[in-house]
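Long-time lurker, first post. I've been practising inverse folding by hand and with some scripts of my own, and I keep getting stuck on stretches where the structure tokens seem ambiguous. Below is the full token string for one chain I'm working on. Before anyone asks, I'm not after the true native sequence, just a reasonable design that respects the backbone. If someone could post their per-position residues I'd love to compare against what I wrote down in my notebook.
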């Protein structure tokens, strides 16, 4: 049971990391399309493109904004899932750190000590080391 809770926590944690990255990508997409819309508006004002071309860009911007809202909602839902998994209030803010940013020195595991204990205590001890 303990391993299942640990696995569930890890999966939710990585879901939050993924949704945060997705939010960043969606925000960049909205910025890019907003820039394109400004250019399209200038071209329309100069008579280079038609109103229909301008509308297409506006629709793409609307779709990108809608995707951004959906992805932000996904991030909030993932944070609520994590809070639920660790018995915290669902609306409590969750700040996660990307795994690559954790220095390996913070993962102090004495391999010799645990290796010797593993030889003595067997595979049951292995689950206690990592969870």
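-- Answer (accepted) --
I ran through it position by position. Result:
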């Amino acid at each position: 049971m303990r391993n299942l809770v640990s696995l569930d926590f890890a999966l939710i944690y990585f879901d939050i990391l993924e949704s945060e990255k997705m939010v960043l990508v969606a925000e960049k997409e909205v910025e890019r399309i907003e820039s394109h819309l400004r250019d399209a508006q200038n071209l329309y004002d100069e008579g280079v493109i038609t109103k229909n071309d301008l509308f297409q860009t506006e629709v793409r911007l609307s779709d990108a904004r809608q995707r951004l809202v959906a992805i932000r909602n996904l991030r909030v839902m993932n944070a609520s899932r994590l809070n639920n998994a660790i018995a915290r209030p669902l609306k409590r803010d969750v700040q996660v750190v990307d795994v690559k940013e954790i220095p390996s020195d913070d993962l102090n595991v004495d391999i010799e000590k645990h290796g010797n204990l593993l030889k003595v205590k067997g595979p049951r001890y292995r689950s206690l080391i990592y969870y």
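A couple of notes from the structure itself: Residues 2-96 form one domain. The longest helix spans residues 2-45. Happy to go over any region you disagree with.
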